[in-house]
Write a structure and sequence with these properties.
heterotrimer, A alpha/beta (181), B alpha/beta (356), C alpha/beta (258), A: 181 residues, alpha/beta, six-stranded mixed sheet, 6 strands, 36% helix, B: alpha/beta, Rossmann fold, 2 domains, oxidoreductase activity, acting on the aldehyde or oxo group of donors, iron-sulfur protein as acceptor (chain A), Pyrv_flavodox_OxRed_cen (chain A), PorC_KorC (chain A)
Chain lengths: 181, 356, 258
């Protein structure tokens, strides 16, 4: 199993931390991982993107040329991200902020209203965790069944209070993905 | 007990590996894309009672390394391409004085100020000496975070063993990328062998006076010193050449690539093999000494071609040509300016060459 | 019978390469006398710069390190930080310190590096054959200022007063200027060196002794003339004495405590 993911969104949406947490959880589940962030030359307001690979085998190129799954967190990253999707791959859209579908009739497109779900849980900033749940659900690459234990080693103790809310977001993301599949 | 697996950025893994290797002094100057390394050393060297200085320039940092290395401790600096250019005078002095030291280059795109994204345009500078005079540094080229940590750790051992500065040539991708890494066990610094040539502690070591210098104004003695160093280099060439091969045995086309380019080329080889193409990968791990002999042996196979894949306009390809010595076709493929080729582009280049 | 005066133990007894009348020899002697008096021969390290004093390793009978031109304070930083209980002497000429190595000296001084710089100012480049130094006086002749240093039309800049330049930096604790053109000045200079070395061994901060020194060969003067020239031309521009002293041993400034 090798799951290559390309994630894009605007700076501040937690694209980088989504990618990092995804590979961290994958590593804790025994997979080999790589995470390569890329910021546009424009440091502020630019599009943040990351090449993320989790695999049972040694990872060759850490650069995702064709992604099994593309995650699009914002409208302005659609253009950059849509072409990264492999033929017949999956595109996860944050439908709270992305209003037009990518021009990829071959791809399976799943609409996850990440910001709305996150706000319902209590904090719009965990929209990226909602998306991580959806990514887990649709790919099955990283199970996130014991995410609470894993996040305890990811976050410093001072932030452990935030873990229950993150877990709620992940679970809600999984559910949202199930219901649109 | 199984070892802890950690998720780390290449820059941080290099820093931690250096600390575990017993690096007593680190001197650096900020430059992207290696800033996490300097910050990691600042955060971790001082609390451990070791020496960290943010120098006023790369020039100053390498000369602080020179002074520290002269006292016999393990010393290191790091930078990225333009900063490494500035360090070349100091590296030449280190070589002239036969001092061990570790220099890390998290390379970016040039020439000039260039850009901040990954590139491999520093191959000539790294393998041809870079500064003035007859000398070499050992050059190690990691392909990912794990190897960046392992080779940085080993760089200190090799540098002490051979009394030659070791350059770890990474690039912006390896520095910025996160991968899982198992770190080497820390060395016991107190147990490291004393260096009888170092300055300081004269009374403790009950020795005569030591002078650390690269100066030799008499041409006859300087020639002798250079010849002696050259003989030493010959020994290192015999002992140290290191490389990795992937599916080269039956390959009609051998891709030669190091570092990030090798990782991308691995994917291209996998994709090519899936299409039934006989392609393989030869990855030099030591860029100096360069594995000329092994490539020459690979060139013996009838009809085999070589493609040097580099994030540059073609620099290592000259070494591949030297190794092949006219016995097989050699070409170069690569992107430059901080653009990184993907496996589809590399595979397309390989197919073009196979069909040519 | 008590020996009152002899050859310093730390100074190798060979004939030096220095020209007749050159100040380096006297300065070497002062340094080694102080080292002997302090019993530090086996705990001293000198960095010998690019310039006439590049052969310092032949003369000083203790460890030495020879760094790149101008990088002497950076190398001395690397040495002293690792050998805190050693006496580290950063020996620099005016080209090494005040031209090519300006960044290094300013930042080493500002960090309060705990070595002592011996700054030999002879207002000319000696080893390369009499070129203009940053400390060359206005109007002074050099091969690269053949009609005299001209800060105006020719844009050759002004002589740099290094002690005064460094005195504003927080890391500097002792900055003094001496000269070796006559016995009185030599005695005073030795005292400055002793003060600086003692402060270093107490770990107090950056210390430097600037020493005005003769270069008869490149000044195109006889040794006696050069002694006179230094007195009449250099000292009026580069005043002797302590330019800054904030050491724990410093006398309270006049009027303090009132």
């Amino acid at each position: 199993m090798t799951e290559k993911t390309f994630i894009a969104g605007f700076g501040g949406q937690g694209v980088i931390s989504l990618g990092q947490m995804w590979v961290y959880c994958a590593m804790k589940e025994g997979l080999i991982v790589s995470f390569f962030p890329f910021y546009g030359a424009e440091k502020r307001g630019g599009i943040a993107r990351a090449s993320v690979i989790v695999s049972e085998e040694e990872i060759a190129s850490p650069i995702v040329a064709k992604a099994d799954t593309v995650v699009i967190m914002s409208q302005d990253s659609v253009e950059i991200a849509e072409e990264k999707c492999a033929q017949g791959g999956t595109i996860l859209l944050n439908s709270s902020l992305v209003k037009t579908d990518p021009n990829r009739p071959d791809a399976k497109i799943l609409h996850i209203p990440c910001n709305e779900i996150a706000e319902k849980i209590g904090d719009g900033r965990i929209a990226n965790m909602v998306m991580m749940g959806a990514l887990s659900q649709t790919t099955g690459a990283v199970k996130l069944d014991h995410a609470d234990e894993i996040l305890k080693t990811f976050f410093p103790p001072s932030k452990h209070g935030l873990i229950p809310m993150n877990i709620k977001a992940i679970e809600a993301g999984k559910q949202a993905c199930l219901s649109c599949e | 007990m199984s070892k802890e697996i950690r998720l780390m950025k290449g820059n941080e893994a290099i820093g931690e590996a250096a600390i575990r290797a017993g690096c007593a002094s680190y001197f650096g100057y900020p430059i992207t894309p290696q800033n996490e390394l300097t910050a990691y050393m600042a955060a971790n060297m001082l609390p451990a009672g070791r020496i960290f200085i943010q120098a006023e320039s790369e020039v100053s940092a390498i000369n602080m390394v020179y002074g520290a290395a002269a006292t016999g401790v393990r010393a290191m600096t790091s930078s990225s391409s333009p900063g490494i250019s500035l360090k070349q005078e100091g590296i030449s002095y280190l070589c002239g004085a036969d001092l061990p030291a570790v220099v890390v280059n998290v390379a970016r795109a040039g020439p000039g100020l260039g850009g901040i994204t990954p590139a491999q345009g520093d191959y000539f500078q790294s393998t041809r000496g870079g500064g003035h005079g007859d000398y070499h540094t050992i050059v190690l080229a990691p392909k990912g975070v794990q190897e960046a940590a392992d080779l940085t750790f080993e760089a200190f051992e090799l540098s002490d063993k051979y009394k030659i500065p070791v350059l770890v040539l990474a690039d912006g991708l390896i520095g910025q990328m996160m991968e899982s890494v198992v770190l080497p066990d820390p060395v016991d610094m107190a147990a490291l062998p004393r260096k009888p040539w170092a300055v300081g502690h004269q009374a403790r070591d009950k020795r005569g006076v030591n002078h650390v210098s690269s100066m030799n104004l008499d041409p006859a003695t300087l020639e002798k010193a250079n010849l002696k160093r050259e003989a030493h280099y010959d020994m290192v060439k015999k002992e140290l050449c290191r490389y990795e091969e992937m599916q080269v045995e039956d390959a009609d086309l051998v891709i030669v690539a190091y570092g990030t380019s090798a990782r991308v080329s691995m994917s291209a080889v996998q994709a090519g093999r899936a299409k039934g193409l006989k392609i393989g990968l030869f990855r030099p791990i030591t860029l100096w000494p360069f594995p000329y002999e092994r490539i020459a042996a690979l060139a013996e196979k009838e009809g085999r071609k070589f493609l040097s894949v580099e994030m540059s306009m073609g620099q290592m390809v000259e070494d591949v040509r030297l190794a092949v010595n006219g016995r097989a076709p050699v070409a170069h493929y690569g992107r430059t300016g901080g653009m990184i080729h993907n496996e589809e582009e590399v595979l397309a280049a390989a197919e073009r060459m196979l069909n040519a | 019978m008590e020996l009152l005066y002899g050859h310093p133990k730390s100074l190798v007894s060979i004939q030096s390469k220095y020209c007749p009348g050159c100040g380096h020899g006297v300065i070497h002697r002062l340094i080694t006398e102080v080292i002997d008096e302090m019993g530090l021969q086996e705990r001293s390290i000198i960095t010998n710069p690019v310039g006439c004093s590049i052969w310092a390793e032949y003369y000083f009978d203790f460890d030495s390190v020879q760094p790149a031109h101008g990088r002497t304070p950076a190398a001395a930083t690397g040495i002293k930080r690792n050998l805190k209980d050693h006496l580290v002497i950063c020996y620099q000429g005016d080209g090494d310190l005040a031209a090519i190595g300006t960044a290094e000296i300013i930042h080493a001084a500002n960090r309060g590096e705990k070595f002592t710089t011996i700054f030999v100012n002879n207002a000319i480049y000696g080893m390369t054959g009499g070129q203009m130094a940053p400390t060359t006086l206005v109007g002074q002749y050099a091969t690269t200022s053949p009609r005299g240093r001209d800060p105006g039309e020719a844009g050759m800049g002004y002589p740099i007063k290094v002690c005064e330049l460094l005195s504003s930096l927080g890391g500097t604790r002792y900055l003094a200027r001496g000269a070796v053109n006559n016995p009185v000045n030599i005695k005073k200079t030795k005292k400055m060196i002793r003060t600086a070395f003692e402060a270093q061994m107490r770990g107090e901060g950056f210390t430097m002794v600037e020493i005005l020194s003769q270069c008869p060969t490149n000044w195109k003067l006889s040794p006696p003339e050069s002694i006179d020239w230094l007195e009449k031309n250099m000292i009026p521009f580069y005043p002797l004495g302590e330019i800054k002293n904030t050491l724990s041993t410093a006398a309270a400034p006049a009027g303090a405590g009132n």
